[in-house]
Write a structure and sequence with these properties.
It is built from 31 helices and eleven strands. The chain has five domains: 129 residues, no CATH class; 134 residues, no CATH class; 215 residues, no CATH class; 120 residues, Ribosomal Protein S5, domain 2, CATH 3.30.230.130; 70 residues, Orthogonal Bundle (Arc Repressor Mutant, subunit A). 64% of the residues lie in helices and 7% in strands.
């Protein structure tokens, strides 16, 4: 109804209803390449022609299939355009064949505009036009295109192909023009979309079959036999003529072809064009191209997300239309991994390392998108499987900086630690799902879990964690990959952190079993504040009375203190480490002191003291004066007496300790035995083969394990009388 109202408004407009309006519209379509009618103009034309068509009597459907006024309206427009077009291209003024062909291509572009009119009619056909009428109009358009195609095809192909000469012969990528080839394919697709008048009855019975038959005829006759043969000859010729310059031209050529093929609706045409390009151009230069695209410069482009990255992405994507290109893309990806890992191995800053890994994940996603969207469906699964295996293998042998243990699993634990610490250094750039995805590429996840558990303890003990809720959520996500039984120690730490034993309002602590504490506990020592030391001695005496057989170890390095700080600006309530309290107490007394003198005053190792001062400086509690920039040990340290923050947490984000996991094979053997015993306890009796499959399925998510490893564990458990062999290859659990 909205359309009707608009029609009425247009009908009442003297401007739109002038007698020469339709003639001007048609001439503009035909003669002005820049002409682009607005929707109101379309509606005005439709209504004016409808008004004209109502003057004609309704035709007898037996003698003329077009009986609806809007059919007459559309035919009136297209008929006049065709007539004017034919008058122009047959005119004696157009002497050259090329000019005539260019007029045909101009006609094709103009017909695209007239199709907008048909779409307006078809969109509202329930009100103005019946579905069968829309089909008849589509038939008319198709036949119109078909006639132009049949009578001018050879010339159309030659002109379209020659329009590619600049990029091939002259090496000028800017002048390369695919628009004529696009128009030709558009003409073929449009001609194939309809049917001939004599096919109308069969079309009504089975439209899909009729279209398929029509397309098959056109596809074989025009696309396969003519266009593709011409393209094939063209690429063969160009490949010989530009042998030396070809590697430099290929990225530009492929970029043009990629953009062109993406516009083609018919996948057969698209694949054929890419096939020809691949066989005649790319395959001969595969080594040169591969070296160019996997160079250090190309990797830098990808890592830094420069604009040239999109060209290489398109280049790869366009090649993957051809099934033979799968091996090329696999080789490209393998080379890319080698070059990408190189900067990772050299990086010593955990934040930079984490962000590089994030860019790595982005690029992996690009490759997966490429696989799902562009590679043949039958190859997609094998390509993605190859990627996952290649990533794991490359990361497994990578030599990361010794600061991070040199091992991917340990590096990942460092990145996760930075992610889960208060103040998250990645500023929400890195998300939990990124961490889990990186974990999926680690084969020895038990090493990651050992370091993650150690770091988890330090974060919770020092209150430097983002929060216990976040820690628990992240552990649960890990548990989706690794059986929760293997995360028991991590979960126990979180539970222990909640069970604080309060001695008085000024001092609190929590105790955990020694086996849950960090494996490496040679922390720096420092003088303890007097009141803190007194509380420790008092609590130690109480604990000794309560549990005389227990031995307690105080980890002062991980201690947290609540501090009430008075400055010129007011009172601040701070949560700090015990070591920070020692330093602040000395600074408040002296106000200003060289770093070396402060180290002597507080009795703290200089490397440890540098970390504390850097943290206090970042929190604006101290001011660094003089010395060399970035070298705290050359600065003079000044207490900031104007500091004020109602409430703040100032936690030293210590670099996690690298743990050397000893007797790894023995630990894994015991882990496997524990899993076997647990499963057998639940089932009492099982087939040996079934048990081994369950254990491998569970433990392979934690570390690499083989059937032979499981068999060895079973034999040891039988020897230790945990299991008993039964008939028919069964095992039973012994109480």
């Amino acid at each position: 109804m909205v359309l009707c109202v608009k029609f009425v408004k247009i009908l009442n407009s003297q401007k739109m209803m002038t007698s020469n309006f339709l003639t001007n519209f048609i001439n503009s379509i035909l003669c002005d390449p820049a002409y682009s009618p607005d929707p109101d103009t379309y509606l005005g034309v439709i209504w004016e022609v409808y008004d004209i068509s109502t003057l004609h009597p309704i035709h007898d459907p037996d003698t003329n299939p077009f009986e609806h006024p809007f059919e007459v309206a559309y035919l009136h427009i297209t008929g006049q355009i065709k007539e004017l077009f034919q008058n122009q291209i047959m005119s004696e003024l157009i002497e050259s064949r090329e000019n005539r062909i260019n007029q045909i291509y101009s006609f094709i572009r103009r017909m695209k505009i007239t199709n907008h009119i048909f779409r307006y009619i078809n969109k509202h056909r329930h009100t103005f036009i019946h579905k069968t009428v829309a089909c008849k109009v589509a038939e008319y358009i198709s036949n119109l295109y078909f006639g132009v195609l049949e009578s001018n095809f050879d010339d159309l192909v030659n002109v379209a192909i020659s329009s590619l000469n600049p990029i091939m012969i002259e090496g000028n990528q800017e002048k390369a023009d695919f628009t004529l080839l696009e128009s030709l394919i558009y003409l073929i697709n449009s001609a194939a979309a309809g049917y001939k008048v004599e096919e109308y009855e069969s079309f009504k019975l089975n439209p899909e079959k009729a279209r398929e038959e029509r397309w098959s005829t056109l596809y074989n006759e025009y696309v396969n036999e003519k266009i593709m043969l011409k393209l094939n000859e063209f690429f063969e010729t160009i490949a010989k003529e530009t042998e030396n310059a070809l590697p430099l031209l290929i990225p530009g050529i492929v970029d043009k072809v990629f953009n062109f093929t993406k516009k083609l609706k018919n996948i057969h045409t698209r694949n054929l064009i890419c096939d020809i390009l691949y066989n005649n151009v790319v395959e001969n230069e595969i080594i040169t191209l591969n070296n160019a695209l996997t160079s250090k410069r190309a990797i830098d482009i990808i890592i830094n997300k420069d604009n040239e990255y999109s060209l290489e992405r398109k280049y790869l994507s366009s090649l993957t239309y051809h099934p033979k290109s799968l091996s090329f893309v696999q080789h490209f990806f393998s080379r890319f991994m080698d070059n990408f890992i190189e900067p990772l191995e050299k990086e010593v800053n955990i934040k930079n390392l984490g962000l590089l890994m994030l860019k790595f994940l982005d690029y992996i996603n690009d490759f997966k998108t490429l696989a799902y969207e562009d590679i043949y469906v039958r190859e997609t699964e094998s390509f993605v499987s190859f990627m996952e295996k290649e990533i794991s293998n490359k990361l497994k042998v990578a030599k990361f900086h010794q600061k991070f243990g040199g091992n991917y699993q340990v590096v990942l634990a460092f990145i996760v630690d930075a992610y889960l610490k208060r103040g998250n250094s990645f500023k929400n750039t890195v998300q939990a799902q990124h961490m889990i995805k990186l974990l999926s590429y680690a084969e020895e996840r038990d090493i990651f879990i050992t370091h993650h558990t150690n770091n988890l303890f330090v974060r919770t003990a020092t209150r430097s964690t983002t929060g216990l809720t976040y820690e628990k959520t992240f552990l649960n996500k890990i548990a989706e990959f690794i059986n929760e039984e293997n995360l028991a120690k991590s979960y126990s730490i979180l539970e222990a952190a909640k069970q604080e034993e309060v001695f008085n309002s000024k001092f609190s602590y929590f105790t955990i079993k020694r086996q849950l504490a960090p494996l490496k506990r040679n922390y720096p020592s420092f003088p303890l504040p007097k009141d803190y030391q007194e509380n420790v001695e008092k609590v130690s005496a109480e604990l000794k009375k309560k549990h005389p057989n227990y031995e307690y170890e105080w980890l002062h390095y991980l201690g947290t203190a609540n501090l009430k700080l008075q400055t010129e600006k007011g009172i601040s309530y701070l949560t700090t480490s015990v070591a920070q309290v020692s330093v602040l107490n000395s600074l408040i007394k002296v106000k200003k002191i060289p770093f070396s003198d402060l180290a002597s005053l507080v009795g703290i190792d200089q490397a440890f003291l540098e970390v504390i001062i850097r943290t206090l400086s970042n929190a604006k509690l101290v001011i660094l004066e003089g010395g060399e920039k970035g070298k705290i040990n050359t600065n003079t340290i000044i207490f900031n007496n104007k500091y004020h923050m109602p409430k703040a947490i100032i936690t030293d984000n210590w670099t996690p300790k690298v743990i050397k996991v000893r007797n790894l094979d023995l630990q894994r053997s015991k882990c496997a035995q524990a899993a076997i015993v647990r499963i057998m306890k639940q089932n009492r009796m099982m087939k040996t083969q079934q048990l081994m499959e369950i254990v491998i399925n569970e433990l392979s998510r934690l570390f690499p394990i083989t059937i032979n490893d499981i068999q060895s564990c079973i034999r040891e458990l039988i020897s230790d009388e945990y299991l008993e062999e039964k008939e028919d290859s069964h095992l039973a659990y012994r109480e």
